Amino acid sequence: MHTRTIPTLLLSAALTAGVLATTAAPAAADTAATAEASFADQLRAIPGVTVTDVTDKDGYPLYSLTITQPIDHSKPELGTFGQRFSLWHKSVTKPVVFYTGGYGLSSATREPTTILDANQLSVEHRFFGPSRPADVDWSKMTVWQEASDEHAIVEAIRPLYDKSSKWLSTGGSKGGMTQTYHRRYYPEDVDAVIAYVAPNDANNHDDKGYERFFETVGTKECRDALNAVQRAMLERRDTLLPKFEVMAKEKGYTFTNTLGTTDRAYEFAVLDQVWNFWQSGTAADCPTVPDAETVSDDDLYTWSLGHGLSVYEDSSLGANGSGPYSWVASGGAGPTGSAPRLPRGVPRHCGCRYIIRAGQAAVGTRGEFRRAGLVGVPPDV
After folding, report:
1. Alpha helix ranges (H) inside the chain
2. How far is CA 197 from CA 96, 111, 126, 171, 200, in A?
3. Which of 127, 136, 71, 80 is nearest to 102 (CA)?
4. What pLDDT is stored for residue 100 in this prediction?
5. Cα(325)–Cα(333) distance, rounded to whole angstroms?
6. Per-chain mean pLDDT for the chain
7. pLDDT score of 344 more than 90
8. Residues of the chain with pLDDT > 90: what percent?
């Protein structure tokens, strides 16, 4: 029997390679840990930035942070507030996706982040959630102020990443609008903007585009049926309002701090119904629209609850929930207009013949929106 003899030099090389292989991974891990510790230290060293928490997200740190922002970027002496944002950090050499939903803070992974395997910086819009001073001056809720907030965050965080790293901003709907405005005021902050379904108006006072949509969407039969349902909801108010009040009580809804009464809240919900039907539905839903002349009160109300009758109540209006958007709509971004025209006297509270959907409530005119008592009357910007 013959045995193979491994030359001493070859055996030594093999053993050395094995030792290197077993030590390479820990060494790499130590290097990554050191780099991450260094990055975290750099974050904590940024003036005005506070790291409030660090969690793991898919193997990478997700930093929860606040930054001290001036209430008014043109008058910093007026005081400050803490604005929340988060940073999902992977590598200083990867791209950075700068995201805002335009409302509260969301750190959910966005499509461009996944496509680019990027870092993601997510920001809460000023004056939403806890990102506000103790006493809010709603006149400072403007698109320029928010763009300046985001500019300050970019200036604070961007130096931590390689100069070669590309930055792009993204958001959908109001978030897309917010990032468009950011790029308009601070074009050097990011390399590109991916704005999803951002309804930016070139002229806030021209709502013909929305009116044209409501005059042509679906079929005439469907449009007429929806308008008839909306009118029936208002004309049958005496029998339908008690159903609305029972539902509000069961769900714990209140209206005293914003819209004032259930009657007013009911009207605003109905005025927004056609808009909401088309926002969340399609022409395929048209066959479900009931015949307003023959449908029973119960069936009419039940169908409406599932097709656009959104309830605006205290926890989602004023300073709560998405309520602060009303200030942006009234002051900077502009409300969006919608049809149909309604006969005089059918709405009791807004006195309108057409609707302007301002944030999360629909009222008659821009002046009426500002008098609606949702959050007050901001000045123009």
Report:
1. 8-45, 111-116, 143-157, 174-185, 208-216, 220-235, 237-251, 262-271, 273-280, 297-306, 325-331, 366-370
2. 21, 14, 21, 9, 9
3. 127
4. 94
5. 9
6. 81
7. no
8. 57
